[in-house]
Amino acid sequence: MMTIQKKWLSVCVSIGMGIFSVAQTRAEHAQIELVVRGKEVQKVAIADQEPPLGGVNPRPLLKVKANEPLVMQFILTNIYPHGVVNAVKVRYFVVKVKQTKQKQVPDLKTGVVTMGTIVMNFKPKCKVGARLRFRVSEPGVYLVRSDTVHTKSDHEHFSSIDLVVE
Amino acid sequence: MLLKGFLCLVGFWMYADSGDGCPQFNLTVMVDAEGEKVTSLQTHLVPSDRKPSLVVLTVRKNQPLRVKWIVHNVDKLFEFSDVYVHFFAVEEEEIGQKKLPDLGRDVDHEGVMTMDFKPGEKAEGTFSLTLDKPGAYLIRAETLYMADSVHEHDHFAAVEILVE
Question: Do A143 and A162 touch, CB atoms closer than 8 A?
């Protein structure tokens, strides 16, 4: 009887540790507030994560005119509390896409309106952000996005807004 | 005990004053205009009595530019905690102007990050830039608030762009 109880306890502990471990790896690591501002309107997006591809939050949509002066701004706060993560890449970009709500990010080799990267060590509570002015001359659908790459985690964080240029 | 005290003193002196010509941070700004590349001449200290001489790149209006900046702690001993790194591209009144332009609404590109720099560690970034108005522009990467600390100075590297 004791043996069965011990075995059951051992299984419970294993499952518990597994759940704890999954919860740890799936924990929030970053908050990213992304803002795109046009002449009269602006949209704000909050952090999402991949996988699943494209995240789970609905993506805000901003309609602007071609050649309208626009501002993109993001602020990323690292909320992962368990030490330093080296050589994290933070990307921010505006790129042409086929349609709104597109889940797949293009390869960033063509159709890029503007792009920036920052490679840095992430310590708990560190921040990184950028603000830039841009215009889009060609009507179409564009993805404005800020994201992390190489966080050595099973997921990455991003924040994105669809931009429809008329 | 005496040796420990001496080492502490030497360490404090090295941390507080690296001398004018030997910054503990190397900052670099590079600009690539469709194959024509320029790199900042040196890391400047702030405050400093010397007028920095900056390399100037002449480009066409709307010519795509790619900027790369690097911040490198070249000190072999010291870690610098919570260093603010700031980089920007902004229009200025003229090439060679002494006063820093206002970084208000008209800044073309601006970013900031915070990081601990262990000896030898670096941070770097890139950004694309298209300047659609003729004029003079400053592209600069700098450390902030180190001058307010025991370190007593900040660092920057910059390149100027003349858009024709």
Answer: yes
